[in-house]
Amino acid sequence: MANPDQELPPESESIVDRIASSGHALTRVLAVDDELAASKLLSIILGPPDYYCATASNGEEALLALQRERFDAVISDLRMPGISGMQLLAQVRRRHPHVAFLVTTGVNDVDVGVQAMRSGADDYLVKPLLESVVLLSLERALHKRQLEQQVEDYRQHLEEMVVERTAQLQAALQQIEGSYEDTLEALGAAIDLRDSETAGHSQRVCRYSLVIARAMSWSDKQLGSLARGAYLHDIGKLGIPDGILLKPGPLTADERALMQQHVQIGFELVKGIPFLADAAEIILTHHERHDGSGYPRGLQAEEIRLGARIFAVADSFDPITSDRPYRRGSPLDAGRETIRREAGRLFDLQVVNVFLSIPAETWSTIAGDQRTTAVLPSLLRQDNAIRRRDAGVIL
Question: Whole-angstrom Cα distance, residue 279 to residue 228?
Fold first, then answer.
């Protein structure tokens, strides 16, 4: 073993620089000991061409050195004035988690060395230090840290892959959602084309319903489901024969029964479509009435879902106040009075009270806009982010 009192040659730093510049990767070690002889011994053991060893006489110097330079490993005595080896270990683990850390201890402090390993040290060396033991222990510690770094790199790479895949999934979902919205618009247009006398009805009742639901503090997710159900509530009419749907005069009892089947037809059309599943119940029950006089199941009061109870008010208010080829629509105030008069019989009292609390100008604005605008309400799109979040996709 080399003499621990031997001085490092003055050209040692230039040797390190030359080796580093030649492409040979030096393992950089910081030896920390308040005993000069111990630090010199480690400097000799861990010299070029494989190692570069800097020294510090206490914990404070060691922390400063770690701030200035990069080190692969620290070999520190446990018993030092000021910052102890254990305290230095704690700070190095917090600030430089990937640096290997070995402790040196006397024969009588082996238990302290074991405690240091439990606190994050990679190994402990018993003084007097043997070159072979130092090199073997350091090699094992560096290998361990290298493996940990590889695991960390893999984890980060995996996270990057997840982010990339998530972005791809987001794009795919947005395309799908765009297709959903296009489908809804096409279906709504088909309904209006089929029954031109009620053109714009789906858009208006959708917006009316959303105004009431907002006033009742519904969430965006609930509003999205309500919007889809309201917009497509009459989709079942696509299955009703023209002779009945477009008949100018009163319907016979048989014809009325067949017309009433449009709610069941619409329900069957959409119930199997995942993004319309929540809307299917509104389509099925939008003609149910508070007193049980509606169809198809004769539900009463709270047996009817709240969304359908909200929609029932909107769906009745619009025909009263809209123009038809055979009559002029009633004024909005008259429509509001009709809804108020039927509260507790045809309509849910709570929903009617909310409806009546909304300024008349709101309904006038919607009615005016919808007579000239046939655009799918933006609320149909607002729950997209919520549905992606519920599916576990981070935007």
Answer: 6
What are the tens digits of pLDDT across the range 347-391?
999 999 999 999 988 888 887 764 434 444 454 554 444 444 444
Q: Fold for domain 164-390?
A: Hypothetical protein af1432 (1.10.3210)
Determine the topology of domain 12-129 in CATH. Rossmann fold (3.40.50)
Contact 263, 236 (CB under 8 A): yes
- The residues, any chain, with a CB within 8 Å of residue 4's CB and separated by 6 or more, are 37, 38, 40, 41, 44
- Phi, psi values for residue 57, rounded to 5°: -90, -5
Q: Is the peptide bond before 296 cis (omega within 30 degrees of 0)?
A: yes
- pTM listed for this prediction: 0.52
Give the integer Cα–Cα distance in Å for 194 and 257: 19
Instruction: With H, G, I as helix, E, B as strand and everything else as coil, classify residue 124.
Output: strand
Read off the tokens for 257.
Answer: 């029964």
* Amino acid identity, position 40: K
Instruction: Write out pLDDT tens, residues 176-208.
Output: 666 666 777 677 667 766 665 556 787 888 889
- Cα gap 363→336, rounded to integer Å: 10
385: three-class secondary structure by DSSP: helix
